[in-house]
Amino acid sequence: MELRQIRYFIQVAEKKHFGRAAEELFITQPALSQQIKLLEEDLGVELFDRISRIKYRKVKLTAAGEYFYTQALNLIKLAENIKRETKRRTQSKELVTLGVYKALLKERIVEFMAEYSAAHPKTLINIKEFEHYSEVQKAVLEGEIDLGLSVLPLHFEHLKYQTIKKGKLNLILSKDHPLKEAHLEDILQMGEWIELQARFHPIYHEIEETCRKAGYVRNIVQEVTSLNLLISLVGLGQGVGFAPSLYDFSSEPNILVRSLEETILEDLEITHILVHKH
After folding, report:
1. What does pTM read for this prediction?
2. Do the Cβ atoms of 275 and 140 come closer than 8 Å?
3. Which of 48, 61, 97, 248 has the fewest CB atoms in 10 Å of its CB?
């Protein structure tokens, strides 16, 4: 049994599809199937229900597979911790693993790394990316990473944090958008919105709840996984959107930025934090 095979198994279990898992792992599907077969032979059990896969084309874990999945996650996490700690003891610089989340602007990461490296010149920073800001917090809590760039709210009471920056929301439209001079209330009613998917957006539900209480339901025509893509689509006139006030739009000539002061959304804040345990 190899760690590589365990990682393959985890991908298949989470994607519930051999083809998509193979794409994620950058290997062919037959090669992936062969490695899973070797793992099952080594363990002496079926991890995936063969009947479900052959008859219904569904990837379903067996009872043994469910147990192995839970233990596999712990094993991979342990292996990564061992690797990190071993590296830490052999390098002249102290290795610090920094967690970031997918929707975090790369400028924020580079900015933090520059400041941290200047304050801790004997430190080498290793970046680990997570899907969601709450996953960063959980990884700090479990010792998987040393520090994490996240946003409020804090989901785990035993963690500590330092506020890095606070920002509001801005409304963004293309400069030739027909609603560019309309009031926010009219845009909430008539605009076609592009939005970050809720799982990547730190205040998605707060925006929706504020709008709902005021009697507005946004027409979200497209959801994306990155702020950069959202801004590009708005610039192309595909819709309107919200963006953090901390974002630098100087290199976005097609974007019109409007403040949300004195609107129903003026109190919403995004607070960027550095999360740690001690």
Report:
1. 0.63
2. yes
3. 248
Per-residue pLDDT of 1-45, as tens digits, reads 889 999 999 999 999 999 989 988 889 999 999 999 999 999 999
| Distance of alpha carbon 130 from alpha carbon 145, whole angstroms | 11
DSSP single-letter state for residue 87: H
| Residues written for the chain | 278
Q: What confidence score (pLDDT) does residue 90 get?
A: 64
Tokens of 197: 């998917």
Cα 75 from Cα 82, distance rounded (Å): 10
What is the set of domains in the chain, with CATH numbers?
A: 3-77 (1.10.10.10), 91-164 (3.40.190.10), 169-259 (3.40.190.10)
Element (H, E) at 231: helix 227-235
Q: Which of 121, 120, 126 is CA-nearest to residue 147?
A: 126
From 197, 201, 191, 169, select the one nearest 239 (Cα to Cα).
Answer: 191
Distance CA 230, CA 51 (A): 42
Bridge partners, residue 275, by sequence: 148, 161
